[in-house]
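Model: You mentioned two targets. I'll fold them one after the other.
Researcher: Yes, keep them separate.
Model: Target one:
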Amino acid sequence: MLKDQMTPLERAKALAKGEPVDRFQCNPNLSNGIARVYGCKISEFNHSSRQLANAVIATHRRFHGDGAKVFTDLFTLAEAMGAKMKFPDDNTVDLLEPAISDVSQIDYLEPVNPYKDKRLPLHIEAMKYVYDEIGHEVPCSALVVGPFTSACFLIGVEKTTKLMLRNPEAVHKLCEVSLQSCINFAQAAIEQGVGISIAEPMSSCTVISPKHFRTYSAPYFKRFVDFLKSKGIGTSTHICGKTEAIWEDLADMGFGAISVDNVVDLKKCTEMVGDRMKIMGHVDPSSVMYSGTREEVRKETIKCVQQGWRSKKGYGIMSGCGLPVETPIENIDAMLDAAREIGWPVTDEKLEKLLSVDKYK
């Protein structure tokens, strides 16, 4: 296994200054797979801040990726506002029942108190543990589920899509209270010393049209980004699925980075908005990272670098979405090792030469 010459935090600071580094930043994006690395059940860290922090810390120390993220599932804000959850013994939490069933109940919804409501205090405490123990080595962050996505979970995705056509005012009310919850949670996270990244899967053009994105998601997304900027916090976002039609919108909002799904054209993304924000992605999390061989992971990582490395604001290796829980550990190693093998600086000739070699055969 190749070794890094810099810590993730040293690498991040050098890149920010335009200084040389040892390799591209690389974030495999394990999500709840951190339970497998640490050796606990997923349910354990859904009910223990110490276990959640331990899993995040163990994952950093095992792989030395370029971020330590405190996150469990997409529903923490919606749950804190009244939604009911399914808590499997050893799988990801899922939505059981939205917070409300009818638009007449919207006015009863209240923004979250991160220090009191449901699992949010657990997450806040885990952030403090993580930052205190490894914040000197790696950039630490909280993943906040964005205003529109959290709003969808308050009344249900299907009802939200119908309301966008039949009752726009109701959708805006849901997004408004959801935005305030995002701000409250992010403020508490910032107070623990961590950065913020934003997940907005329901804003994908695979789910809603670009027109509906601009009407219902973008205004609240932008206000959330503006709030973070007012606190001196830069931020990144990940939106699953097709996003090409809204890349310019996201760049206009002032994101520092965007992580893109493997279903989009990475090279085109760098050409369209790579001069305005850093591009991250987009190794296939399923057919390559989960189901592929180490050599397939290595080759796909190199191919992604071929497509992304010319991005003017920078490029980072990342899976196209959160990895399946049972993604083989050796495949995660292969992604990080590929980043180290590619090294820095990079040329097209170097990448072609690496592709011509089968390292694991």
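Model: Target two:
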Amino acid sequence: MKEFKIFQHPAGKQEEVKQGWSWPGFFFGPIWALVKKLWGLGAVLLVIVLLLSAVPVETELGILTTLIMLVIYIVCGINGNSWREKNLRSRGYDHLDTVSAANPDGAIAEYIKKFRNPAE
């Protein structure tokens, strides 16, 4: 089971954010950021990764740029979920609860179940 923070927008839409390491952030970095509506971060990361990708890997500079990109993706994995939380808060979402669930959909379902049956 994983821990998820549940956020809700005043309009009623709910979002979940897994706690800890972000595998999608690590593997997909800039694209993941854009999908999660982290527009500024996603755009900056995309430009940086595209510029670094233009350097041929066979050169010494290419090896350095590859290592820099690896560090960027590791930073996205470490910080991705906390960046997402901050973004949701800035967009008007409120943190409601933290629940344990096997997956994101299960986290929302668990929150709804808990909300409807507060004694559990």
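Researcher: Noted. Anything on target two?
Model: The first strand starts at residue 2 and ends at 8.
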